[in-house]
């Protein structure tokens, strides 16, 4: 893989003398690197407080030296992404900035889903890449442990990554089934008696899981797998009495499971299976006085080997930037 060469400019312009330059060999890839109307460069300028000026196959990085170095690392990583035949979208820029600022480094022998120093989760419809160090650690934990907890606020990609890894393992033949579950608990409002059969009644609770699967599998294939019960999406209460072998099992919104439900679910783990528990301690919708099973499991199982606990913060939010700010505001009030 080639990359841009960072050097000091040969120019009499006083402003440019205080900058650095990146030189790229392939002008066609450089056009894609800059983006339509230089939108990718504008995103970098905004995020890193630096000015980037394009002159032919040169990019002038004008700003303080640490910012210029960060920008150069990010631009080189994005350029290598283009060389591998992938496109660049704005979330990719944000991810590369986070990895660079966090000093994230990788090794190709860490896991099979590792490519060019980045984790990649390959599914039928798209390739998913962690955008933050916590997400990267979570994906690694999902590969190395049979039981994994992902705990943190909304929008940090816990469920999305867990389902993506499950689909990837199913495609690779590592598991025979995918089982996704959630407690059927209403978020602070009573929905009344819903019409239809049992599936119609519980599907509204399960919709986020359907949304994730639709991102990773073609619609017809997904419908067939659900019809054959190779992929199951069911409320937590439906798990009682089962032993789930050779399966990839996800319990989402685990903060709304009671202590008894959590114990019941954890003991469903069968031979050749992997289990993922995701939840947000700040969004418990259980009645007053009912202990959250997620909190119980966290305190009881934290020191047991081969159980991975992974934590996310507002810094890992990958939705709209305002979401992180909102989460921080609520967290600050709860600490007062």
How large is the share of residues in beta strands?
15-25%
Q: Give the strand tally.
A: 14
- What is the H-and-E element order? EHEHHEEHHEEEEHEHEHHEEHEHEH
Q: How far is the first residue's CA from the last residue's CA?
A: 51 Å
Oligomer: single chain
Contiguous helical run count: 12
Largest pleated sheet: 6 strands, parallel
Structure description:
There is one protein chain. This protein is an alpha/beta fold. Helices cover 42% and strands 17% of the residues. The chain is built from 12 helices and 14 strands. The strands form 4 sheets. Strands 11-10-12-13-9-14 form a 6-stranded parallel beta sheet, sandwiched between helices. A hairpin with a 4-residue loop joins strand 7 and strand 8. Helix 3 runs parallel beside helix 5, helix 4 crosses helix 5 and helix 10 crosses helix 11. The longest helix has 19 residues. It is globular and about 65 Å long. The termini are far apart. The relative contact order is 0.11. About 7% of the residues have low confidence.
